[in-house]
């Protein structure tokens, strides 16, 4: 009996040691699996980084080709894709810092090149010319004009450029009319351009009938709209509403006397806003919604 009990105790001891061994082996296996998983994650992340670097390299080459051919919309779209891939690369903990910095500098350089090209086109197409006593705004319908505007939209610089356009439009033309209500306003339209010219007088002439002046301004807006008549506009409700507003703008005026000064006040048919604001908004909408 004592011998049997001893054997049982020995078996129990062996089983206990076996359990400890199995637990140890299990821990070792789990640790090995974790290390392998970490290694695989790092390999997969490295593969993704290499794929991104290869895509960015190819996009750099495509960008330069399109820019050389003056295909600005395509160049802007490629640069936008490069920026997205660069962000993915910079967010990866496995990326080399020096490579990320180098790509960032190259992306900025390419963006500067594209913006310089678009700015030059802008200055060629949207011409302000001010020499006393006249100020002229000329919009030239360059074959690349709509591509330029769309590329600016992709580059997220169109809003700033249009604000600049509105500011110049007001300061160069509208302010001249307000300061001198007897100014001559002339509109000329050629096949590929439209010009709005404001010529100040010596102040001795009688104030030009407001109906005549605003009729000329209305004609100017219609000419500008016609110049972009081939534009295709978005079908969303907001665009349709804005374009409807553009077509409904009519120019009316009131002249009020303050001391010895005559002040021109712009109003609209709807009487809910100033003509100047509506005019500039309409022009901005016209440019902003223009697509190829």
Keywords:
292 residues; alpha+beta; four-stranded antiparallel β-sheet; two-stranded antiparallel ribbon; 8 helices; disordered C terminus; Zw10_middle; Putative centromere/kinetochore protein zw10-like
Structure description:
By secondary structure, this protein is an alpha+beta fold. It has two domains: 2-115, no CATH class; 132-288, no CATH class. Helices cover 66% and strands 14% of the residues. The chain has a four-stranded antiparallel beta sheet. The relative contact order is 0.08. Residues 227-292 have low confidence and may be disordered.
The structural domain count equals: 2
Largest sheet: 4 strands, antiparallel
Which geometry do the CA atoms define?
Answer: elongated
The helix-strand sequence is HHHEEHHEEHHEEH
Q: Unreliable runs, pLDDT <50, ≥5 residues?
A: 227-292
Please give the order of strands in the largest beta sheet. 1-2-4-3
Structural class: alpha+beta
- Structural Rg: 35 Å
Query: Helicity range of the residues?
Result: 55-70%
**End-to-end span in angstroms?**
101 Å
Report a brief summary of the structure.
The chain is of the alpha+beta class and about 290 residues long.
């Amino acid at each position: 009996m004592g011998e049997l009990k001893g054997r049982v105790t020995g078996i129990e001891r062996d089983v206990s040691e076996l359990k400890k061994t199995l637990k140890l082996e299990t821990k070792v296996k789990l640790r090995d699996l974790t290390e392998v998983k970490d290694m695989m994650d790092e390999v997969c992340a490295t593969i993704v980084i290499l794929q991104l670097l290869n895509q960015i390299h190819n996009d750099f080459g495509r960008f330069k080709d399109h820019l050389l051919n003056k295909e600005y919309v395509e160049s802007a779209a490629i640069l936008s894709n490069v920026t997205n891939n660069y962000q993915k690369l910079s967010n990866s903990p496995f990326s080399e810092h020096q490579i990320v910095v180098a790509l960032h500098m190259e992306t900025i350089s390419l963006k500067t090149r594209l913006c310089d090209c678009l700015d030059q086109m802008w200055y060629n197409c949207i011409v302000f010319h001010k020499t006393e006593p006249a100020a002229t705004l000329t919009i030239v319908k360059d074959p690349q004009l709509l591509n330029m505007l769309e590329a600016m939209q992709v580059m997220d610089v169109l809003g700033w450029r249009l604000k600049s356009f509105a500011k110049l439009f007001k300061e160069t033309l509208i302010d001249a009319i307000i300061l001198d209500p007897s100014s001559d306003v002339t509109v000329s339209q050629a096949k590929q351009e439209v010009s709005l010219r404001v010529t100040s007088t010596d102040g001795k002439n009688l104030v030009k009938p407001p109906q005549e002046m605003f009729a000329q301004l209305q004609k100017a807006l219609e000419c500008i709209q016609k110049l972009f008549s081939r534009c295709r506009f978005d079908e969303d409700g907001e665009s349709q509403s804005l374009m409807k507003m553009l077509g409904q703008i009519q120019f009316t005026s009131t002249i009020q006397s303050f001391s010895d000064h005559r002040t021109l006040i712009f109003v609209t048919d709807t009487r809910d806003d100033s003509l100047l604001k509506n005019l500039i908004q309409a022009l901005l909408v016209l440019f902003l919604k223009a697509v190829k």
